[in-house]
Amino acid sequence: MPHLRLSLLLILGSVAGVCVAQEDSGAGIQQMMTAEEFKAAGLDKLSHEELQKLDAWLQGYRQTTEKKASETAEKKAGEEVKKATEEANARAAKARFDNIVSRVDGSIEGLKGRTIIKLEDGTVWKQGNVDDRYRASVTDHPVAIVSHSPFGYKMRIEGMPEFYVNPVRNP
């Protein structure tokens, strides 16, 4: 979210800069400089035509610079938005992995100490606490939810209390 705010501020800043520059763009170099600066730069020696040509060149230079600055700000803002979106997608993908909702593949009678539980999504889990002994009230394909907590994985099977499990790497 901070990246999105930064991006919006960059875009608004560049638009504001372009608006201010457009307001000043009607002024010639003589109006933008003090009399001392104008004379110190030797511009008081230029004819009216030469000053007009210099003003025209500066106007073109301003427009080119403003366009480049605007494009750069838009590009940077787009990159920031893309990065923020990718980070949000990565967090969402991690959250999906941290909460698995499936069903037991087959039937389950309960926990007996070293119970292996295979889910329909293909994951396999082993009972974490060998001392846990629970009977299942729903035995045929009950719903199972696995969540990741700071202390490990917990599984809740329909009709049973929650218990700790460990993923089985090679079922």
Overview of the structural elements:
There is one protein chain. This protein has helices at 2-24, 29-32, 35-40, 48-98; strands at residues 99-103, 110-111, 116-118, 124-127, 134-135, 143-149, 152-157, 163-167. It is an alpha+beta fold. The strands form two sheets. It has a six-stranded antiparallel β-sheet with strand order 1-6-7-8-4-3. α1 runs antiparallel to α4. The longest helix has 51 residues, at 48-98.
Short overview:
With 171 residues, this protein is α+β, with helices and mostly antiparallel strands. It is built from 4 helices and 8 strands; from the N terminus they run ααααββββββββ.
Key descriptive features of the protein:
single chain; alpha+beta; six-stranded antiparallel sheet
SSE topology sketch:
Elements: H1 2-24, H2 29-32, H3 35-40, H4 48-98, E1 99-103, E2 110-111, E3 116-118, E4 124-127, E5 134-135, E6 143-149, E7 152-157, E8 163-167
Antiparallel strand pairs: 1-6, 2-5, 3-4, 4-8, 6-7, 7-8
Helix pairs in contact: 1-4
